[in-house]
Structures are given as structure tokens and as C-alpha cells.
Design a protein that fits this description.
Blueprint: H1 2-25, E1 29-33, E2 44-45, E3 55-59, E4 66-70, E5 75-87, E6 94-102, E7 108-110, E8 113-116, E9 134-143, E10 146-156, E11 163-168, E12 180-187, E13 192-197, E14 200-206, E15 213-214, E16 222-224, E17 239-241, E18 258-260, E19 277-279, H2 291-294, E20 301-303, E21 320-322, E22 334-336, E23 348-350, E24 365-374, E25 379-387, H3 390-439, H4 448-460, H5 465-485, H6 509-523
Length: about 525
């Protein structure tokens, strides 16, 4: 059976590889970098002063597979790869795909790629930074409340000439583990974009839908008139004080909120002449105290011990209570405003930058850049792909990403199970320690051996721990109820004295009867003494 499974797996891999070769032959692979060879001489590291992070050519942990590694914590990184030929995003399907592994997790930082416009847009590889113009930004980003797989399109408004960032609404979250994940964006000719994580579609959106991108690619037809001003007589108050209302004559605005409780009586035993705090009689002036430099020494205060038994000390004052005559400051009631016109808004005018669009006017991709700031090291990028066929991307996922992921997942599962077992073993050890102490409780002495047998049995078979706990609880409850309600007294049986046949027997009948009486007394339930 095992041989058949391996044979089937080899056939599957061979078929997937054949698919890959067929697709590659059709020139559907525009760019692909496995990083099996060093990036030196192929990728260009930015010379900008802000980007001090060191990139390394490194193996993915637990694999022989190489990738591009973020090697230092709390640094900015920038590196770029120029494409041999710019990619036209307006022509058919375009697939953007890459793998990333957050080997130390990701608490605050990015792991996304930027697909850059041609250099005539105003950037140079050696000066690559966050201002370098891109067409698409895609990939994980996580910090604080931010946890998303970005997809941002920079699109040029044909009327204003301004490039605007359009963010995908409600993007998927970043996987929280430390495994290798593959991120795929499929740009389709029907204006749709699909975001896949590990080959599973997590988000589908339309470039032209205002529901999917913020701000929308197609601007609104009208905008608020920037020159419109609110008229001076425009009244936005929905309610106004009633001008005909008059304050009642008995309304006293000066009445206090609280008054003394005249019915209160000083508690008996109140110590008027005793202060609440007194000098600490045990305190002594420090030997190094200098009155001229430190001032006159005063003993620290402590609570007056006489006040502890008295209802109170010091001057007694009547407590305060709410004043029934208090009404506060009078104000007239509110009525509907007859001059109310609503909340003012500027009038809408035609948007001079409005345009209609049948398809996004994508700028071509001329380079791939990674420009990130991250607090974590250990971020590994691998298998960066640009293709013109989503089946090619699927084939690459099956042959390059999936085998690694399955190995990592099994390893993670084993580590999690080991950690769970260690936690369970630690818990059980604590439980056993407590049970051994329970066995030493004096009133359980009669059952000590039974309890110890249960504990030792559970230690050899840890899965019985819960059952042992239940058994011991039953024993304790049984004894508890016996102590409270008393056990059923056994009827005493008088035994006839037996005549000893010889003088050197095992004991007289009187001695045997006395021993029997002692055993019976020991077996009877012990009564608790009642305190008088």
C-alpha cells in the first residue's frame, strides 16, 4: 500500500511538472525567480541612507530551498529587480504570485511586493525608496490594528493627470502562523481581481465597483462646490429656547444641592477631644538628622488607637443630605425652531475630474521591488512569479510551494502535540503532588493505602488522571457525609467465653473478648466532639 501511494505521488508530481513545462513553452511565464542562486548581481539593493537592513541569500528553516531573507530586526529594507521587458497589464490575464514565510512571526511590519512603473516615471534602482512610483502593491502587512493582505492599485486620472492609490476594501487577513504561504493576485480581462492565499480564493472584486475599492476608480459625477459659502442668516438649530417661557416665582437658583441633616445626632461615645492621628510614640529622631539643614524633626503620624473602638474622633459635624428645594439653574424649555433650515451643505457641481471607464488604464510593470519596514527578522521571500495564465501559477504552487507547506504543517503539528503533552504532563504532575498531600490528611488515614494505590495507578497510565480524581473525591465525600451524619452502628454480639484447654494457649478468653471489643470500637464511626 505504501509503495502504491509513493508511486501515485510520483505520477502526480510528474504530471504537474509536465504541465509546468507545457505552460512555460507557451511563454506564459513572464518572470520567475526561485532564489536558488544568489541575488547578487541580479537584484539591486537601494543605496538610500534610510535602508540599512541587510538582505541575505538563505535557506528556509528545515528545507534545502533558498530564498531572499530579511536578516535584521527593526530596520528598513529596499531591493529591486528590473524586468527584461515591461509587462502590459491591459493585455489578457496577469498573475502576480510569491511565497513568503514569517519565520519569527509578524507583529509589526510588511512583507509585500511593489510592482514598479518604468523608470521614466522618475526613479532609479539605486535610489529605490517608498516614493518610487508603482502600479500595484500586493502582500501581507500587519501592525497594531492593521492586519491585511494589501492590494493597492495606483491609477492615473486622465482628467487631472494625478495618480491616486485605490485600496481594496475588506482584504483578507494575514495567516498568523510561521509556515510558508503563497499569495496570488489574478488580474482578469473582465475587470475582476481575485486574491488567493495558498491557492484558495479569499477575495474577489471588480476594479470598476465603488463597493470594492476606496476611493473608487471612477470618481463621482458631482462634487461639493468649493466656492459655495453658507449664508449668514442660515439657521441650523432644530430646537431653540421658548422665548415666551418665564421662570417660576418659587424657583430658587441659589439653593444649594446639599444641606446639613438636622435630624442627625452625634453617636454616643464620640471622642471630640481625640485627634484621628497622633505622633508615632515609637519613632525616634535619626542620628544624622541636622535641624539646620533638614528642618525641625517631626515624628511620623499613625492612626489614633483610641479611635479604633470609638465611633469617631475629632470635631463631630452633621452629615450632608440632598436638598429637597434644590432645582439648579433655570432654563427655558426648548421648542421647534420656526427658522430652522437644516444642516447646510455646499451645492453640488459637476466634477471637473470625472471620467468614464470601461477598463482600468493600468501602467506597465517594469520592475519588482520589496520596500518594507519591519520589527521582525526571518521574513523569507521565494518563488516570485509573473505569469499570463493562472494555470501556470497553480502548477507552480503544486510543485514548489505545496510540498514545503505539507512538511512544515506536519512538523508544526508534531511540535504542537509535544507542547500539549508537556503542558498536560506538567498539569498532571501538579495534580499528583496535590493528591499525595491529600492522602496525608489525618482523617483520611484509614483510606490512605487505597488513595495511594489509585495515584500510583494513574501515574503509570496518565489518561486515568480524571478518573482517579473522581474516585478520590467520592472517597472524601463519603467520609465527609459519615462524619456529619454518623455511620450505622453495628449490633453488638455477646460472645460466650471459651475455656482454655491448656495454660500455654494464645491467650485467655477474657483477653480475646477485650481485643474484640477494642477492634469493634475502632471500626465504629468516630463521633465529633461538640464544643460547649
Amino acid at each position: 500500500m505504501m509503495i502504491m501511494r509513493r508511486y501515485a505521488l510520483l505520477l502526480l508530481l510528474a504530471f504537474a511538472s509536465l504541465q509546468l513545462l507545457c505552460f512555460a513553452a507557451d511563454d506564459d511565464v513572464v518572470f520567475y525567480d526561485t532564489f536558488e542562486e544568489s541575488f547578487d548581481g541580479r537584484w539591486i539593493v537601494s543605496d538610500k541612507d534610510d535602508y540599512k537592513g541587510v538582505w541575505k541569500h538563505s535557506k528556509s528553516e528545515g528545507h534545502d530551498d533558498y530564498g531572499l531573507l530579511v536578516s535584521e530586526m527593526a530596520k528598513k529594507y529596499a531591493i529591486v529587480k528590473e524586468l527584461d521587458e515591461a509587462v502590459n497589464l491591459k493585455d489578457g490575464t496577469t498573475v502576480l504570485q510569491f511565497e513568503t514565510r514569517l519565520q519569527r512571526g509578524l507583529e509589526c511590519g510588511g512583507a509585500y511586493l511593489k510592482y514598479l512603473r518604468p523608470q521614466d516615471a522618475g526613479w532609479k534602482p539605486k535610489e529605490f525608496d517608498n516614493e518610487s512610483p508603482y502600479s500595484i502593491m500586493f502582500g501581507p502587512d500587519k501592525c497594531g490594528a492593521t492586519n491585511k493582505v494589501h492590494f493597492i492599485l495606483k491609477h492615473k486620472n486622465p482628467k487631472s493627470g494625478e495618480y491616486i492609490e485605490h485600496h481594496l476594501k475588506y482584504p483578507p487577513s494575514v495567516p498568523s502562523d510561521k509556515l510558508t504561504h503563497v499569495y496570488t493576485a489574478i488580474l482578469k480581462p473582465d475587470n475582476e481581481v481575485s486574491i488567493l492565499i495558498d491557492g484558495e480564493e479569499k477575495k474577489k472584486a471588480s476594479f470598476l465597483s465603488a463597493e470594492d475599492f476606496e476611493p473608487p476608480l471612477i470618481p463621482s459625477k458631482t462634487i461639493p462646490d468649493p466656492d459655495d459659502k453658507k449664508p449668514e442668516d442660515w439657521d441650523e438649530r432644530a430646537k431653540i429656547p421658548d422665548p415666551d417661557s418665564v421662570k417660576p416665582e418659587d424657583w430658587d437658583e441659589n439653593a444649594p444641592m446639599e444641606i446639613e441633616d438636622e435630624e442627625a445626632v452625634k453617636p454616643e461615645g464620640w471622642l471630640d477631644d481625640e485627634p484621628e492621628e497622633i505622633d508615632d510614640p515609637e519613632a525616634t529622631k535619626p542620628e544624622d538628622w541636622d535641624d539646620e539643614e533638614d528642618g525641625e524633626w517631626e515624628a511620623p503620624k499613625i492612626e489614633n488607637p483610641k479611635c479604633e473602638t470609638a465611633p469617631g474622633c475629632g470635631e463631630w459635624k452633621r452629615p450632608m443630605k440632598r436638598n429637597p428645594a434644590y432645582k439648579g439653574k433655570w432654563s427655558p424649555p426648548l421648542i421647534d425652531n420656526p427658522s430652522y433650515k437644516g444642516i447646510w451643505k455646499p451645492q453640488e457641481i459637476p466634477n471637473p475630474n470625472y471620467f468614464e471607464l470601461e477598463k482600468p488604464d493600468f501602467d506597465p510593470i517594469a520592475a519588482i521591488g520589496i520596500e518594507i519596514w519591519t520589527m521582525q527578522d526571518g521574513i523569507l521571500f521565494d518563488n516570485i512569479l509573473i505569469a499570463k495564465n493562472d494555470k501556470v501559477a497553480e502548477s507552480y504552487r503544486e510543485t514548489t510551494w505545496k510540498p514545503k507547506f505539507e512538511v512544515e504543517k506536519e512538523k508544526q503539528k508534531a511540535e504542537d502535540e509535544a507542547a500539549d503533552s508537556a503542558r498536560l504532563a506538567g498539569f498532571q504532575r501538579k495534580v499528583f503532588d496535590v493528591l499525595y498531600k491529600v492522602a496525608d490528611i489525618p482523617f483520611l488515614s484509614k483510606y490512605k493505602h487505597q488513595i495511594l494505590d489509585l495515584i500510583e495507578h494513574a501515574e503509570t497510565q496518565p489518561n486515568l488522571t480524571i478518573g482517579v480524581l473522581v474516585s478520590i473525591v467520592v472517597i472524601i465525600l463519603t467520609i465527609f457525609f459519615k462524619l456529619i451524619f454518623g455511620g450505622k452502628k453495628q449490633p453488638r454480639v455477646e460472645k460466650k467465653p471459651e475455656v482454655a484447654e491448656t495454660s500455654n494457649g494464645e491467650g485467655s478468653s477474657g483477653e480475646k473478648a477485650e481485643e474484640a471489643e477494642k477492634e469493634e470500637a475502632a471500626a465504629a464511626p468516630r463521633r465529633r466532639r461538640r464544643d460547649n
